[in-house]
Backbone:
């Protein structure tokens, strides 16, 4: 992890750079969701400021993935309000499209389009959703592939890349839409250990650009380094939230203490 | 844990002399080894191999005798008609290909006016040209749709006539191979897009559309094609107001399209279901609209997955067009059947059916080979 430490170490004050005074990038207000009779999100309220980096952790089945998937409506919530970049999520398809244009998402299983080359994966949405000219979209894609350090793979198909490379392409693909907010749903959980670092490095680099980010992850090292705030969820509710120091060194609740001890034992 | 990793990363010892790679022993690979392993591995296997080889050789010799050596390729035609005594004297020891020599134009073109046979012949060539062009991937662009439209209009003009100084030929006189090609080409070209819409509709979240598509598939699939053809030819005109009449061929064509689309829709739906949910979610998360998602992400992958069953259905459909004989349309098979009604040629069904089967086989086998190529080519992205 030395490389990530170095990168973050260059600007130690960046962790507090979140602008909490402006309008929130994401606002969740008493959000509730049920799968059938199972109550999976209970009164979730969360404010994410512009440029804030929030890490969401918690045991599996705690609703963390469901929560961030509600933000771009891959899941539908049944009660409460979700406001993204000033637009309220509703059944109105136009506002949903507008929100999805501004919110990039990275999945646990990459979900690259296997029949398209890496470059086409990155340019498809800018060309068809942003109506960007092809040349421009390709230049932009190459620029982002450069930043995630795999420009030489642009003409290959996703199946020809390693897991870590695929996930970096997925990040580049999301960034090509120039989103204001990035959601990460356990981006390193499906990776072999030696590939986790290259993806985390990419995420740290992204955090340094001032991107608003919500990351569901079990990488506590990453949380300590870049998170402005760590949110701990369990059984569909937010149990504790605070700066990483407080969450990791001074947990208030029994549930968080148990979770942390399990996580630390596991590593 | 650390030790294991360290060990795994140390390079293995390289053999001393990489210049002389060892070859596998001759008796373990190569054709001789294959024969020994597969055909002569034990005395039972050897006995079975020899017995079957004998039967195959006997049959092959018999076939060559019948089809080539003893065959009669033409017979004299006098004013009383063709003189087939020589053929009859053979008593099935040899094929009487003279029936094909005499009747091939009837089999290919049916009752189309004799002196105008060049028109359906040109149509058959146009169809084949259309298939060849469509099979080449570098022509897969929007203009191909225009080429199809133009070719089909041209074929219509040639067959009907009444334009450019061509004499008018009513549809009742069309027949033979060209009918089979018309029914199957239009059938596939229209049923395939329809089936995609039905498959998408069946997965729609809108209950009315979903119900409509389910009803369509279940109703059409629940009845035999023959009954649909009967309905199209007999019942459908009863519901039309006096004086309104659609061409019989057109009605049969519509029945075939509706029938094939129901089957194809289920094949396409299978492909849609086989795609991981993540592909839909990734496309949604990027903000692609429904049609963009379907057109760029979902269908290209789903259809690749179902190329074998799709072509299976296409081939089945190509041969199913022969069922139109029951409503009196003169397709390739019916033309062949009719050719041997003439007293002089009665009893030479084997030769005619053999020739007709060969024509069907050529088209079906071409489809099959092409689909295998296409599958390999389109799925190259899956090869590492």
Residues:
């Amino acid at each position: 992890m030395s490389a990530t430490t170095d990168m973050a170490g260059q600007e130690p004050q960046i962790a507090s750079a979140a602008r909490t005074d402006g309008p929130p990038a994401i606002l969740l207000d008493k959000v509730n969701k049920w799968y059938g009779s199972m109550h999976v999100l209970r009164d979730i309220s969360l404010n994410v400021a512009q440029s804030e980096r929030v890490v969401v952790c918690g045991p599996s089945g705690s609703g963390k993935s469901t929560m961030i998937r509600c933000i771009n409506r891959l899941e539908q919530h049944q009660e409460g309000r979700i406001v993204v970049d000033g637009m309220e999520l509703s059944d109105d398809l136009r506002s949903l499209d507008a929100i999805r244009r501004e919110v990039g998402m990275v999945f646990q299983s990459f979900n690259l389009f296997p029949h398209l080359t890496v470059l086409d994966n990155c340019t498809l949405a800018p060309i068809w959703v942003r109506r960007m000219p092809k040349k421009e979209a390709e230049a932009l894609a190459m620029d982002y592939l450069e930043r995630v350090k795999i420009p030489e793979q642009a003409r290959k198909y996703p199946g020809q890349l390693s897991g870590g490379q695929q996930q970096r392409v997925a990040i580049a693909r999301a960034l090509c839409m120039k989103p204001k907010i990035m959601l990460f749903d356990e981006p390193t959980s499906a990776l072999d250990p030696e590939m986790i670092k290259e993806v985390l490095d990419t995420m740290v680099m992204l955090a340094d650009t001032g991107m608003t980010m919500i990351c569901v992850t079990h990488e506590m090292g990453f949380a300590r380094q870049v998170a402005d705030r760590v949110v701990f969820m369990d059984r569909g509710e937010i149990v504790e939230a605070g700066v990483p120091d407080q969450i990791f060194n001074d947990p208030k609740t029994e549930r968080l203490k148990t979770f942390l001890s399990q996580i630390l034992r596991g590593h | 844990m650390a030790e294991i990793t360290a060990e795994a990363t140390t390079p293995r010892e390289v053999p001393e002399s990489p210049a002389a790679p060892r070859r596998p022993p001759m008796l373990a690979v190569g054709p001789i080894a294959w024969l020994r392993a597969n055909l002569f591995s034990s005395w039972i296997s050897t006995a079975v191999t020899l017995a079957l080889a004998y039967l195959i050789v006997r049959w092959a010799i018999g076939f060559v005798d019948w089809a080539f050596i003893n065959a009669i390729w033409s017979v004299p035609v006098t004013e009383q008609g063709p003189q087939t005594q020589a053929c009859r004297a053979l008593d099935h020891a040899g094929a009487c290909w003279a029936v094909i020599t005499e009747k091939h134009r009837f089999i290919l073109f049916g009752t189309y006016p004799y002196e105008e046979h060049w028109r359906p012949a040109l149509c058959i060539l146009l169809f084949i040209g259309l298939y060849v062009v469509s099979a080449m991937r570098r022509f897969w662009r929007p203009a191909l749709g225009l080429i199809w439209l133009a070719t089909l209009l041209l074929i219509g003009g040639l067959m009907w006539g009444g334009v450019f100084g061509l004499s008018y030929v009513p549809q009742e006189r069309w027949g033979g191979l060209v009918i089979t090609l018309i029914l199957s080409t239009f059938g596939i070209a229209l049923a395939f897009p329809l089936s995609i819409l039905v498959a998408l509709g069946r997965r729609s979240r809108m209950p009315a559309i979903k119900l409509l598509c389910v009803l369509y598939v279940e109703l059409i699939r629940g009845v035999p094609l023959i009954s649909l053809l009967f309905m199209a030819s007999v019942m459908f005109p009863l519901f039309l107001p006096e004086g309104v009449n659609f061409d019989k061929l057109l009605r049969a064509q519509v029945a075939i399209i509706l029938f094939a689309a129901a089957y194809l829709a289920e094949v396409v739906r299978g492909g849609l279901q086989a795609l991981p949910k993540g592909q839909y979610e990734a496309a949604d998360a990027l903000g692609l609209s429904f049609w963009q998602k379907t057109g760029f992400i979902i269908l290209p992958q789903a259809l690749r997955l179902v190329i074998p069953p799709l072509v299976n259905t296409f081939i089945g459909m190509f041969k199913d067009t022969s069922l139109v004989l029951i409503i009196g349309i003169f397709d390739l098979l019916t033309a062949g059947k009719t050719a041997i009604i003439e007293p002089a040629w009665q009893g030479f069904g084997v030769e005619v059916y053999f020739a007709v089967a060969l024509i069907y086989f050529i088209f079906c086998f071409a489809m099959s080979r092409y689909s295998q190529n296409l599958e390999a080519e389109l799925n190259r992205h899956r090869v590492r």
About this structure: The domain at 26-112+180-265 of chain A is CATH 3.40.50.300 (Rossmann fold). The interface with chain B takes residues 72-74, 97, 100-101, 103-105, 107, 109, 111-115, 124-125, 128-129, 157-160, 173-174, 177 of chain A (CB under 8 Å).
